[in-house]
Amino acid sequence: MPITLPTDNKVLACVDRSHFADTVADCAAWAATRMAAPLEFLHIIDRHPEIGSGEDHSGAIGIDAQEHLLHELSEKDATTSRAAREAGRIFLNRLRERAVAAGVAAPDIRQRHGEMEETLVEQEAGVRLFVLGRRGESAEATQRDLGGNVERVVRALHKPILTVTENFREPRRFMIAYDGSSIARRGIEMVAASPLFKGLPCHLLMSGKASVEAEKQLAWAQTALAEAGFAVEAELVPGDAESTIARTVKEAEIDLLIMGAYAHSPIRSLLFGSRTSDLLRAATVPTLLLR
Questions:
Q1: Do 118 and 182 share a structural domain?
Q2: Containing structural domain, residue 223
């Protein structure tokens, strides 16, 4: 009988029809293989696409003409929807083949109509890890360095989210940006217990003012990881977290960053800016965000 993998422990890769999709697929395939977890590619089709035909339907029209117009618009919408689904199916099949070539046994594919944020929230109960591009289809025509959906999605979800940059390569060394918070401590415990990073050297970084409490927190994290079998290099570096993390990622040749995400409320972020978004812009490597 065929082996059936559990469906409540999957890696869910959210992809759109941009050139960033291949990067997301490669990263998701790596994660699913490392965790021996089922992989699913999800393509969300906007239920309210902004499509302009250029036709003028304004002005006073009779009842018969109005019914005819409504029927014509309904038919046009159905045709557009079918075309989007078919194009999405072809796109997802290509990503599935790419994942199979990377060693994933039986990746699944699915399309859903809806909004990205609410759709992912609906799927969250069955997901172990989300994977999404830091930029997406909307960024193809802009110079934005952070996709418009990223912050909203990360704030809405409670499972780990791996945000991917372009040209993903299999990580050989990862770094944890540690601040001693409860989220960060849970993150240390998660990394220690997960097969995702087993065997990879870890750089444990704490930034800010040196203190007895900070050194105590850093020592706890280093010990927890070492006892789980990780080779850990730990350091406490004075200075601003954003610039310190960005510099260390480059100098220590880090391939993947782990950090807590959006600890403050959306209102506070509007007033004072979002440190998580700033760090995502500064970091040039895939980043695992912990909620």
A1: no
A2: 174-290
Question: Given 99, 130, 164, which residue is the final one in a domain?
Answer: 164
**pTM of the full predicted structure?**
0.79
Q: How many domains does the chain contain in total?
A: 2
Residue 44 belongs to domain with CATH number: 3.40.50.620
Same-domain check for residues 140 and 237: no
Give the tens place of pLDDT for each residue, 73-128.
Answer: 666 666 666 767 788 889 999 999 999 999 999 999 999 888 888 999 999 999 99
Q: Is residue 72 part of a domain?
A: no
Judge whether 93 and 111 are in contact, CB under 8 Å: no
Nearest to 107 by CA among 43, 159, 32: 32
Query: What distance in Å separates the CA atoms of residue 38 and residue 250, rounded to the nearest whole number?
Result: 33
Q: Which residue has the higher pLDDT, 189 or 259?
A: 189
* C-beta atoms surrounding 217 within 10 Å: 20
pLDDT-above-70 percentage for the chain: 72
Q: Other C-beta atoms within 10 Å of 115: how many?
A: 15
Quote the tokens at residue 158. 């409670």
Q: Could you tell me if 115 and 239 lie in one domain?
A: no
At 9, the amino acid letter reads: N
For residue 223, which amino acid is it?
T
Residue 277 in any domain: the answer is: yes
Read off the tokens for 62. Answer: 């009779």
Count, in order, helices (H) and strands (E) of the chain.
9, 10
Burial label for 52, CB within 10 Å (0-12, 13-18, 19+), is exposed
* Strands of 202-207's sheet in order across: 108-113, 39-45, 10-15, 127-133, 161-164, 287-290, 256-260, 174-177, 202-207, 232-237
